Amino acid sequence: MFKKVIGQDNSESQRSAPPLPETRRAEAIPAPAYGAGQIAPPTRTAPTANRNILSSDVEIKGTVKFSNDLIVDGKIDGEITSDGNLTVGENARIKAEIKTASIIVYGKVQGNLTATDRIELKSSAEVVGDIKAKTLAIEAGAIFVGKSTVGTPASAVQPTAAPAPAAQPAKPAPAPEAPKQGTLSGTIS
After folding, report:
1. Long-range contacts of range 134-139, CB-CB < 8 Å, 24 or more positions apart?
2. Domain-located, residue 17
């Protein structure tokens, strides 16, 4: 199911995700006694969210599910689903249907992107597929080929129509306004 690619060129031309700060488990060490006028050192707390990283030498075919945050700088072919946040690194090559809370794209994605909150296409991004999100941000230089559905449709409340006089035919109610959709193709500069 998982395949690690061995022997890739790791020259400076390939950029990888920045290293994460090292986290340590809290150890059961008795606290020193502090006298009057002495200041106790600050206590360390564990990070509240976990960040997962798939580096540029990782290749996955299949379904990827994660929680919290995922940074992908490798290759994924399949499907990505989560309630968390996805960051597609500059070296990433993804062919997948993506459904997450938010997505930031620096690399290449081929497939549809659906986010419950926000999608950002950075200047180095190349996306071929449809996008659905509450908010869409596209930087100058990004390439996007597909349709986008941005925002949430407003609840169309139709007023109650008064009964028409018997002599005149009833007029049909106006159709509710469809959500704004657009098609965008090309390079933004």
Report:
1. 138/188, 139/188
2. no
Pick 57 or 34 by higher pLDDT. 57
Residue at 23 is within a domain: no
Which of 15-24, 126-135, 138-147 is least confident? Answer: 15-24
- For the beta carbon of residue 106, count every other beta carbon within 10 angstroms: 25
Pairing status of strand 143-150 against strand 181-187: antiparallel
Residue 8: count of CB within 10 angstroms of its CB: 13
Instruction: Kindly state whether residue 120 falls inside one of the protein's structural domains.
Output: yes
Domain contains 142:
yes
Number of domain units in the chain: 1
Write the CA distances from 181 to 14, 105, 148, 149, integer angstroms: 36, 21, 6, 5
Exposed, middle or buried by CB within 10 Å (0-12, 13-18, 19+), for 156? exposed
Across the range 151-176, mean pLDDT stands at 57
Kindly report whether the global pTM for this prediction surpasses the value 0.70. no
What is the identity of the amino acid at 87?
A: T
d(CA 64, CA 111): 14
Band (pLDDT 50/70/90 cuts) for residue 12 is: very low
Tell me which residue range forms the domain holding 59: 49-152+183-189
pLDDT digits (tens, 9 = 90+) for 50-92: 788 899 999 999 999 998 999 999 999 999 999 999 999 999 9
